[in-house]
């Protein structure tokens, strides 16, 4: 995988395609978790592929390539969500069924953008604080405090929702 | 209460999401196609003044191509008169040694040698640091004369190959736009790196030799398709580059916006102007001419040059713009051909939503007073492109096209024999 990542970073388009395909399940699920609709998630994935072709050379560490993809994808999803809210104010409100299906994911979507990003990177991507700090370009201490605050808020949200 | 750290449940929720594999393959394919189209276009794009004009010299691929015989071939004899002006090792001779060294913030820049002619400047330099600089980017390169920036476009940079580098040699290629460089010998190189300190070097240098004069070779061959004439005007040879100039016939009923491909081969069918070696174009046909640059040493070693032109995008001359009123956020008129969707927003912004496969690109604008304005910036995503124009333009404003999906398909070759 590291060889493939290296090739992708050096601009090998076939390697970029293979890499996107390799990670497509996790990436798509992340996009869907954010956007809750197949078309938007596919739009986000297409934009991710486009940005990967254009910007993947900026990745400094091949080992972090997946984390970079997730970070870019989350930014795209947040942009799509913002645009959606501009046009249809209530669209982002999850339905009752969705809430039941995606209990934890719904709670995560109640966090701030920064908190959502660290939670996805840490618990969906299962990245270490050090890795998150590296891709987010923030100190490790900031990652720790964001995770801490996010978890505290999640606990509170679960408490309020009374889901058990 | 459900534990928010319940990873198992989180994973279960994620696994409930069906992954539409086929659709995802399509999204990748579409993004890939778009990138390919953009790459092809990069060769023809005018350097917009506000854009960074860095051409990262990513890979040098050896592209071999044997041209088919069935194409139209015209022979233009007499190239010999010009080509001997450049001898085999002329480029090497044209470089003047300088070896000017400066150190700042742990970075050492050395201008090793320079080549200067009326059309451009090449600077061979090295950069050195006690740490890995393989991924150190250059933010900006400017060359000045008498304290004034020389108007032009530049290419520089190196490819990342995963190895650690503390010493890098590179060449800055600065193409002069507009007027020829005067025969003056004092210059200043300003170069800013993307390190923590954003280190900028300002290094004056003086050349001993005269600025080399360019040589122009007239070709004047016309390619005509569907009544629209494209003229292969001339080749300009100078040590830093060779330029091929195309113009359009004033009698054309259509405005030729853009040529699909311009490929130049030597007699062995090897392509000289590959996009990968950093060669590119200046201007565009909506300004009346387009200039393609390629390496002079490749011209020198060729016995003949075959210029292959493929396809052109056209629009009727009175229908080759979109007319807008930025203050009222409205589109007043757009080409009757095609269905591009334009959106006008505050701050001189025009956004084009693209249908799949459509390629609409904008060029300059002319306001109600007949004043010409270049765009300030543009950005693109996979399905839309956003351009920003100066806000001081007087409405209504006509914005002309650089590219529009209305193509005349053909392929023609002209061979210039040595």
From TrEMBL, chain A:
Organism name: Lysinibacillus odysseyi 34hs-1 = NBRC 100172
Under the heading NCBIfam families, the entry gives: sigma70-ECF
Q: Which SUPFAM superfamilies match?
A: Sigma2 domain of RNA polymerase sigma factors (SSF88946), Sigma3 and sigma4 domains of RNA polymerase sigma factors (SSF88659)
Please give the Gene3D superfamilies that the UniProt record associates with this protein.
Answer: 1.10.1740.10, Winged helix-like DNA-binding domain superfamily/Winged helix DNA-binding domain (1.10.10.10)
Transcription regulation in keyword set:
yes
What GO molecular functions are on record for this protein? DNA binding; sigma factor activity
The protein's name: RNA polymerase sigma24 factor
Keyword Transferase among UniProt keywords: no
Which UniProt keywords are present, listed alphabetically? Answer: Sigma factor, Transcription, Transcription regulation
Give the family from UniProt: Belongs to the sigma-70 factor family. ECF subfamily.
Start and end residues of each RNA polymerase sigma factor 70 region 4 type domain: 103-154
Q: Which GO terms describe its biological process?
A: DNA-templated transcription initiation
Where's the RNA polymerase sigma-70 region domain? 19-84
UniProtKB/TrEMBL annotation, chain B:
- Residue ranges of every copy of the DUF4179 domain listed in the record: 41-128
Return the InterPro entries for the record.
DUF4179, DUF5643
Q: Which Pfam families match?
A: DUF4179 (PF13786), DUF5643 (PF18705)
The taxonomic lineage of its organism, from the top, reads:
Bacteria, Bacillati, Bacillota, Bacilli, Bacillales
User: DUF5643 domain: from which residue to which, for each copy?
Assistant: 215-326
Say if the entry is tagged with keyword Transcription: no
Record protein name field: DUF4179 domain-containing protein
- Could you tell me the keywords of this UniProt record? Membrane, Transmembrane, Transmembrane helix
> Any stretches that span the bilayer, and where are they?
47-66
Transmembrane helix: present as a keyword of the record?
yes
Q: Which domain of life is it from?
A: Bacteria
Organism in which the protein naturally occurs: Lysinibacillus odysseyi 34hs-1 = NBRC 100172
């Amino acid at each position: 995988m590291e060889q493939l990542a290296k090739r992708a970073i050096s601009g090998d388009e076939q390697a970029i395609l293979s890499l996107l395909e390799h990670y497509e399940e996790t990436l798509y699920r992340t996009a869907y978790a954010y956007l809750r609709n197949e078309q938007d998630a596919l739009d986000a994935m297409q934009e991710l592929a486009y940005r990967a072709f254009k910007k993947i050379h900026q990745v400094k560490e091949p080992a972090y390539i997946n984390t970079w993809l997730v970070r870019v994808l989350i930014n795209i999803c947040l942009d799509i969500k913002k645009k959606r809210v501009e046009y249809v104010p209530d669209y982002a409100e999850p339905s009752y069924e969705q809430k039941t299906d995606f209990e934890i994911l719904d709670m995560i979507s109640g966090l701030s953008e920064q908190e959502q990003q660290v939670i996805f990177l840490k618990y969906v991507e299962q990245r270490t604080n050090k890795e998150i700090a590296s891709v987010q370009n923030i100190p490790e201490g900031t990652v720790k405090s964001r995770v801490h605050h996010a978890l505290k808020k999640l606990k509170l949200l679960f408490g309020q929702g009374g889901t058990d | 209460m459900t534990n928010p750290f319940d990873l198992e449940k989180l994973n279960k929720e994620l696994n409930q999401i069906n992954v539409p594999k086929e659709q995802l393959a399509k999204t990748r394919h579409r993004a890939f196609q778009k990138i390919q189209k953009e790459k092809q276009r990069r060769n023809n794009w005018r350097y917009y003044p506000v854009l960074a004009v860095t051409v990262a010299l990513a890979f040098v691929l050896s592209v071999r191509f044997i041209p088919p015989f069935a194409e139209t071939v015209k022979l233009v004899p007499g190239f010999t008169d010009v080509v001997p002006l450049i001898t085999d090792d002329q480029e090497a001779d044209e470089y003047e040694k300088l070896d000017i060294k400066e150190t700042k913030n742990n970075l050492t820049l050395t201008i090793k040698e320079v080549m200067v002619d009326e059309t451009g400047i090449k600077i061979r330099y090295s950069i050195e640091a006690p740490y890995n600089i393989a991924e150190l980017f250059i933010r900006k390169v400017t060359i000045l004369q008498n304290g004034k920036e020389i108007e032009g476009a530049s290419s520089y940079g190196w490819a990342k190959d995963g190895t650690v580098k503390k010493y890098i040699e590179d060449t800055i290629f600065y193409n002069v736009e507009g007027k020829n460089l005067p025969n003056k010998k004092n210059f200043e190189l300003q170069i800013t790196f993307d390190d923590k300190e954003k280190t900028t070097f300002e290094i004056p240098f003086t050349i001993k030799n005269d600025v080399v004069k360019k040589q122009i070779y007239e070709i004047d061959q016309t390619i005509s398709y569907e009544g629209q004439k494209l003229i292969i005007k001339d080749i300009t040879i100078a040590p830093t580059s060779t330029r091929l100039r195309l113009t359009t016939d004033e009698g054309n009923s259509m405005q030729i916006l853009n040529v699909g491909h311009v490929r130049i081969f030597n007699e062995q069918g090897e392509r000289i102007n590959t996009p990968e070696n950093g060669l590119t174009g200046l201007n565009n046909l909506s300004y009346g001419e387009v200039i393609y640059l390629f390496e002079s040493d490749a011209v020198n070693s060729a016995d003949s040059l075959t210029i292959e032109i493929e396809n052109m995008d056209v629009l009727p001359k009175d229908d080759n713009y979109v007319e807008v009123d930025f203050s009222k956020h409205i589109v007043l008129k757009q080409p009757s051909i095609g269905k591009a969707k334009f959106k006008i927003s505050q701050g001189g912004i025009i956004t084009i939503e693209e249908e799949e496969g459509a390629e609409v690109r904008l060029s300059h604008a002319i306001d109600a007073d007949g004043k010409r304005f270049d765009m300030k910036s543009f950005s693109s995503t996979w399905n839309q492109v956003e351009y920003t124009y100066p806000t001081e333009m007087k409405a209504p404003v006509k914005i002309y096209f650089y590219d529009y999906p209305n193509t005349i398909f053909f392929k023609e070759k002209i061979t210039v024999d040595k």
